[in-house]
Amino acid sequence: MKVSTVTQRAKGFTLIEILVVIAIIILLAGISFTVFSNSSATADRTRCTDNLHRLLDYGREYASRNGGMLPSSGMKSAILPPRECKNWWDALAPIVNEGQPENIARNNKELHLLPATFRCPADQHLVVENPEDPVIPATPESISYTSWLDNTKGRPMNVARGSALRGKPWLSDGKPIDGRSVITSRDFDEIVAPVVERHLGAVMVLYADGKIVPVEEASYERIMKDSEPK
Question: Which H or E element spans position 85?
């Protein structure tokens, strides 16, 4: 009688097979993380753009009531009392909170309460006790955007200048400093540069003519490159 021998393969995976599976899992995880990060960054930019659109509406309404001037933290030709234009968000607060007088500061010791529109979703620098609150006390530590002054004259921009406003940044991503606006490269380094990682190296900029763009690999020169009328 013929006896046949069958060599059975050992059960389980070999070391090489395990390593291949691990490598595939790592590769897929890396791809998923990249896709998620890009998707999250895109969503943050979209929400940030929406914020700036809303702030532009507030700014234009403010200008219509105050001689055409857009508010800034460094107003040199103040139209409103000092308390109201100490910071650009203080100047906008009465417009933003119309119908909600409890959100408007009544004296120098109180803070305006402002909605999430003033907070960039990608801002990791905010000092907010409860970020989910619909409104928060408005301070340099809780605001995500900073104002810019007219670089040629160092004063608030007047919407009546029309085409001359092309390329003039009014608000941008930043870490605001109480009472200051961006007017020089030093201001940029101190106020805007600390947050350039917020949108993967770009800075969201709202220009006074209404254009909103992410300036990639942002620098003072890149943001101001179209500031002079041609």
Answer: helix 82-85
Judged by average pLDDT, the poorest of 15-24, 75-84, 130-139 is 75-84
The pTM of this model reads: 0.77
Residue 68, token pair as written in the block: 């055409």
Q: For residue 20, what are the CA distances in angstroms to 3, 33, 85, 145?
A: 38, 20, 63, 48
The continuous run of DSSP H or E covering 113 comes out as strand 113-115
Give 105-143 pLDDT, tens digit per residue. 888 788 999 999 999 988 877 665 666 678 889 999 999
Whole-number Å distance between alpha carbons of 132 and 121: 11
Phi and psi at residue 40, to the nearest 5°? -65, -40
Helix (H, G, I), strand (E, B) or coil at 203: strand
Residues 150, 181 contacting (CB under 8 angstroms): no
User: Could you tell me which residues are beta bridge partners of residue 148?
Assistant: 182
CB 54 within 8 A of CB 116: no
> Quick one: residue 167, left, alpha or beta (phi over 0 = left, psi -120 to 50 = alpha)?
left
Which candidate, 171, 186, 168, places its Cα nearest to that of 89? 171
DSSP state of 228: S
